[in-house]
Design a protein that fits this description.
TIM Barrel, six-stranded parallel sheet, alpha/beta, 264 residues, 12 strands, Aldehyde Oxidoreductase, domain 3, four-stranded antiparallel sheet
């Protein structure tokens, strides 16, 4: 119906529209659009700093019909990308505030068809994408281990298939599994769903025995709880919440009116 509206009602005249930020957040998604940006990517949009309560984020020029056809898709992308960047930026800030300089990372939990945007938003926030797709790193989870018979067998098969150039990560639920994974040649072990005291103890033991092994903490960690998992022996803290359950940053698009761009 929106497409039919644009065909039959909207004219072909040249118009100027303005993208307005209406809620607090970190701007992300700039490379996906050809517009005149007024706010640098990664900057904080704070409507409380302007009298109108609406920050002019970008200027959009073109045929009226084209602007309106792309309006909703563009706003959907920006609200979600900026929401993720806002959430991830807050997580990174917490980590750095605690003096921890490891990787705050997302997970493989992304929206089908929207992964590129979500992973990009993590980068804008200073977080890590983890892996961008299945071809970038081998991750062996419990199902892979069960299918192979053991962690050692799973790692050996993965190393044969992946070759020398690809890292291998193994999900582990206890110290013995992590030690087996390290001995088998894993580059990274994920300590999944560990309680913070147990995590710190296991991570310290692993680092003492395998100094070059990367250790990831994961499983139900949020911005509110990540401080409990911070340790000098943990290299990565990954959170599915960075790309799930985030708040949207509110944007709107308004075609310029004679009485001003912020007129209702």
């Amino acid at each position: 119906m929106a497409y039919l509206t644009s065909i039959y009602i909207m004219v072909e005249s040249d118009q100027v529209a303005f993208l307005l930020g209406k809620s607090h957040g970190v701007l992300a998604g700039v490379p996906f659009f050809t517009v005149e940006w007024q706010v640098p990517e990664g900057s904080v949009i704070d409507p409380s700093t302007v009298a109108s309560g609406k920050v002019v984020v970008a200027k959009v020029s073109g045929k009226c019909r084209n602007i309106l056809l792309g309006e909703r898709t563009a706003l959907n992308i920006l609200t979600r990308a900026s929401g993720i960047a806002t959430q991830a930026s807050a997580a990174v800030k917490v980590a750095r505030g605690l003096g921890w300089h490891g990787h705050v990372a997302g997970t493989r939990k992304t929206t089908p068809g929207f992964r590129v945007v979500e992973k990009y938003a993590l980068l804008v926030a200073g977080a890590s994408t983890h892996r961008n797709d299945l071809s970038q790193m081998v991750m062996l989870k419990d199902n892979h281990v069960w299918a192979s018979g053991s962690i050692t067998n799973a790692v050996k098969k993965a190393k044969t298939a992946a070759g020398f150039s690809m890292k291998i990560e193994v999900e582990c639920r206890k110290l013995e599994e992590a030690v087996e994974a390290a001995h088998a040649g894993a580059d990274i072990v994920m300590l999944d769903n560990f309680e913070p005291p147990q995590l710190k103890q296991v991570a310290a033991t692993l680092k003492q025995q395998f100094p070059h092994l990367l250790i990831e903490a994961s499983g139900g960690i949020t911005i509110d709880t990540m401080g409990d998992y911070v340790s000098p022996h943990v290299d990565i803290i990954s959170q599915g919440k960075l790309t799930q359950g985030y708040g949207f940053v509110d944007f709107s698009l308004k075609i310029q009116k004679s009485e001003g761009i912020l007129a209702d």
